[in-house]
Amino acid sequence: MARLVYLVDDDDVVRDSAALLLCAHGFDVRSFASAPAFLDAVQLDQPGCIMLDITMPDMDGLAAQEALNKRGIAFPVLILTGEGDIGRAVRAMKNGAIEFLEKPYDEAELLSALSAGFALLDQRLSEASKTEEARQKIARLSNRERQVMQGLLDGLPNKLIAHQLSLSIRTVESFRATLMDKLGVRTVSAAVRIALLADLPALSASEASA
Question: Region 103-124: what's the mean pLDDT?
């Protein structure tokens, strides 16, 4: 499948020439003449790299980047900048952009930046997939199993977990065995890694008493 590039630039000439170049190198390019049009179209389930012009009417690149961050769209952003926009481009990088390219940008430099961007995107998607898988596993646990898991996260032995939950040690051992079976692990350390990855949510008062 072709790599998706969102190209956002109000300059028709720059946008068209960049799109031709990227298509020639096998990228799937979606071009936008304004940041609002881009923000209306971009979807979290259509990941790609974003080439974002820093200076545009209506909404500039910094504002568009802020809007992306608020929506939780963490696609790699490459800032396109003119000679007088270096300071703002640096600000964009401090806000999460991975690179800025001065116009007219070098073809090899652009392709190298996109290569780095897609490597980062693959890493983020892999991490997100692992996190979601961990959360789904944690969601299978009963309230009591989650309480025992929290005790394991706190580094407590079975005896102290049993005392905290007013359970027998044997009951805690039973919950521990079933939660590890549900998580598909054989060791406590592996169970702890899953709980940490899932950012094990605390139980509400009603859940804890159930």
Answer: 92
Q: How far apart are CA 101 and CA 76, in angstroms?
A: 14
Query: Do 93 and 7 touch, CB atoms closer than 8 A?
Result: no
- From the list 22, 64, 60, the residue with the least C-alpha distance to 39 is 64
CA angle, 70 as apex, 105 and 67 as ends, to 5°? 45
Q: State yes or no: pLDDT of 209 exceeds 60.
A: no
Single out the residue of 38, 39, 2 nearest to residue 23, CA to CA: 2
Q: CB 39: neighbour CB atoms within 10 A?
A: 17
| Residue 165: pLDDT over 60 | yes
CATH of 4-130, one of 2.160.20.80, 1.20.272.10, 3.40.50.2300, 3.40.50.620: 3.40.50.2300
Give dist(CA 177, CA 187) in Å, integer.
10
Determine the average pLDDT of the residues in 176-193.
91
Average confidence score pLDDT of the chain: 89
What is the reported pTM?
0.70
Domain residue spans in the chain? Answer: 4-130, 140-208
Euclidean distance between the first and final Cα of the chain, in Å?
48
Question: Quick check: helix, strand or coil at residue 6?
Answer: strand
Looking at residue 12, its amino acid is D
Residue with tokens 């545009």: 56
Domain 140-208 adopts which CATH fold? Arc Repressor Mutant, subunit A (1.10.10)
Give the 3-state secondary structure of residue 91: helix
